[in-house]
Each structure stands twice: as C-alpha cells, then as structure tokens.
Amino acid sequence: MARQDFRFFFPFRVRYSEIDGQGVVFNAHYLTYFDTAITEFFRHLGFDYQAYVARTGQDFHLVKSLVLYEKPILFDDQIEVGCRVQKIGRTSITFALEIFVKGEETRYCTGEIVWVNTDQTTHKTEPVSDEIREMFGAFEVEAT
C-alpha cells in the first residue's frame, strides 16, 4: 500500500529505551507501535473498547502478527503508524499497518494484525458484531 491508502495515523518519537545495541529500534517494539496505533484508531472512532467488553462479554484475541522490515528506524526518529481495517471476516478483523517517516512517503515497514472475536467466558469464537462492522464501515464511507 501507499501512504494515501491510510486515513488514520498515530505519531511516535523513538525513545532511547526502544533501541538495541545496533542503535536501531528493537524488532519487538514494532508490534508495540502497531498495538498502540490500533488502540488509538478505536479511540479516534469514538469507540469505548473497555465498555464494549464489559457490556458484551466479548473481546478479541490476537491470532496473527506479521512485520516486514524494510528500513531501520533509529533513535529520535519521528514516525507515524498508518492503520486501517483491511478485512472483516465472520469472526475476525484484519488490520493493515505501515510505519512511515512523519509526514513523508518513506516507509519503514508493513504489517498485518489479525484479531478473532471471542466470548470471554468460553473463549470460543463469536461473529464480529454489527456495531463494530458499522463503525468501520462509516469511517470508510466518510473517505469517499
């Protein structure tokens, strides 16, 4: 994808604690950036995630995380994580994520996160709610 394929971005400035002995962001932190961007994406949409879990008894389990590293991110770099829903299946949501130089087209990496909706008592899969589908659908319709 390209930067223009994303409508939501969340900014970060790389902290010293996030780099490794080579002076680049330690690989596991990319997933932290992704997770934070997804959380902020929900917040941007006005969705109270914790209230939803309490009300429905459902939550999402991570079942897949993928990071394709293209360019090293260094200490004090200013970055932005683009986040969008790539697909909503019957019980799953697939997020596409990419990290860019802040305000630029230069991309550091691409990624994919897949969540499966589950009943928190049984831990069995449940269909993604209409509420979630409509929230993401409304956001995408605004873009057109």
Automatic annotation (TrEMBL):
<dbReference type="Pfam" id="PF13279">
    <property type="entry name" value="4HBT_2"/>
</dbReference>
<dbReference type="InterPro" id="IPR006684">
    <property type="entry name" value="YbgC/YbaW"/>
</dbReference>
<protein>
    <submittedName>
        <fullName>YbgC/FadM family acyl-CoA thioesterase</fullName>
        <ecNumber>3.1.2.-</ecNumber>
    </submittedName>
</protein>
<dbReference type="InterPro" id="IPR029069">
    <property type="entry name" value="HotDog_dom_sf"/>
</dbReference>
<comment type="similarity">
    <text>Belongs to the 4-hydroxybenzoyl-CoA thioesterase family.</text>
</comment>
<keyword id="KW-0378">Hydrolase</keyword>
<dbReference type="GO" id="GO:0047617">
    <property type="term" value="F:fatty acyl-CoA hydrolase activity"/>
</dbReference>
<dbReference type="InterPro" id="IPR050563">
    <property type="entry name" value="4-hydroxybenzoyl-CoA_TE"/>
</dbReference>
